[in-house]
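Teaching soon. Invent one.


***
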Amino acid sequence: MYKKLQDELLGALIGLARATEGTSPTKEIYQTIIQGLTKYNAIDISDDEVRDLIQDVRSKKKLLVAECSKCQAPCGRNDEYDMQNMWNAKEDIRSLKISVLEKIHRIAIWVCYAGEAGANEKINNTLCEALFMIGYAENPEMLLPTIKNIDEISEDRYGF
């Protein structure tokens, strides 16, 4: 998969995670987020499969925040994230965001392996929070509470 598609998928996932805030996401929404997290860097996935996944993420976001597409004064709250902002960030924040991304990727894989995709509210919320913070945090201190939540889930549920 080309890096451009990988970044597009991650940016779309961040937009979907942003859209979950203040709404009532379904288990299917969380399953889409978890599926995207497991597949964003898979080596055995075709470009067409990634494009299909991106479209699925976007369609789930439209269902979740249907009124946003009709808004006359868009606020940008649910916009997709431009991953170039992360890649071009200062070294300390970029490194932390990459670490967060790697950790939630691992959690998503374990959740899928255990057959629990979308079933655990705390995990769902933490994954969405982590994606949101990848697209929002501008300094390391903003990421620390999220990293703590991720580490607690990892230790409690999966032993890593």
Q: What stands out?
A: The mean pLDDT is 89. The CA atoms of residues 30 and 152 lie 20 Å apart. Helices lie at 3-20, 27-39, 47-64, 84-87, 91-113, 121-134, 140-158. DSSP finds seven helices and no strands in the chain.
